[in-house]
Amino acid sequence: MFLRFLTVVSVFCLTGSLATQAQNKPQHQTEFKPGAVWYDDKDEVINAHGGGLLYDKGTYYWFGERRGKSASEGVNVYSSKDLYNWKMEGLALAKSTDTTSEIATHGLMERPKVIYNPRTKQYVMWFHLELPGQGYKAARAGVAVSKNVTGPYAYVKSFRPNGHMSRDMTLYVDDDGSAYEIYAARENYDLRIVKLTDDYLSATTQDTLLFSNHREAPAVFKKDGKYFLITSGCTGWAANRASLHVANSLFGPWQPVGDPMKGPMADITFDGQSTYIQPVQGKKNAFIFIADRWNPKDLKDSRYLWLPISFIANQPVVQWTDAWTLDTWKN
Ligand code: DGJ
Question: Which region is the signal sequence (predicted)?
Fold first, then answer.
């Protein structure tokens, strides 16, 4: 009798939890919920960490680290027309099965960013590459290319820009088509910028120290001719306080202007770490701050924090909100 009671209870609990899971999997999303589980078109949890977005011919593409529990499994890409609903496009850059390759299974590919080069008509991906079996020692920039935005990307090479270590990084294409890598160098004590060659495949010698504040996770955007750069401190996977720098030129000088985060857990970036800032197409001065809420016990299960950037006295502010829509911007 008692056993029968237990069976009834467990069947009830199971159906109950399946029902809750189903409720959590909306087919069509109409808002952003920072920190919530985010599903793709196949009802799989989106696996695109440390990522970056590219807007190309009317579609947004989200590139990010495909993670296992701890393994780095290559770079995933998703596509979306509306930024809320994402279609899984597949593995844009796969790890190599050749054990002698620089991108063999046991190395790391982190913080992938993709830009389009109109001269060569190629999509160019840069990422933080760590060589197999060396932990975070190699500190190199990796480059891969494709004729198609969703890939597959072919691995080209890796290097240290002008001999500098290159760990956390982002890419930025300015209005004149010049592209730059902003990267953490000298064991993350320095944040540097280097201009890319015209084909976006290599670093030029135009390479400058931005500041030596032990910062990483750079995310940059431009508004009204000013550049804004959000970074994190260096505490591994643990969240810490963000900081904002502003400059009239990408090469500096960069002025520190404090922490732009506001709301609960603002002092630790809402338990997250910056990765990218995406302008919203068709809206004026509309930028989305994108961060990772890392789960080092199961990296693929890390969450995403997407929040709107507002401006108070021309300074960017990232105010926490549990849910929001693109209607935040009226224009
Ligand atoms: C912080 C970096 O921002 C992440 O991309 C990752 O490299 C972790 N450190 C590893 O601890």
Answer: 1-22
